[in-house]
Amino acid sequence: MDEASERALPAADRWVAAARDGLADPVIGAVAPRVVELARKSLADTDLTAAQAGAVDDRLQEAAQ
Fold it and tell me: Is the predicted pLDDT of residue 64 greater than 80, yes or no?
């Protein structure tokens, strides 16, 4: 979790911008792909089935675009 916090830190105070602008906000837009990348790498460390992990991974990829 420390790595996730570290990756998200630049956007820690951007709640309003994130709600208003989403990935169009330059800070949120820069941080999100790094956090999604870590989430995707971490799927192997969960107890999800292969099908579930695949579905989550697909959704993460969609969200990052």
Answer: no
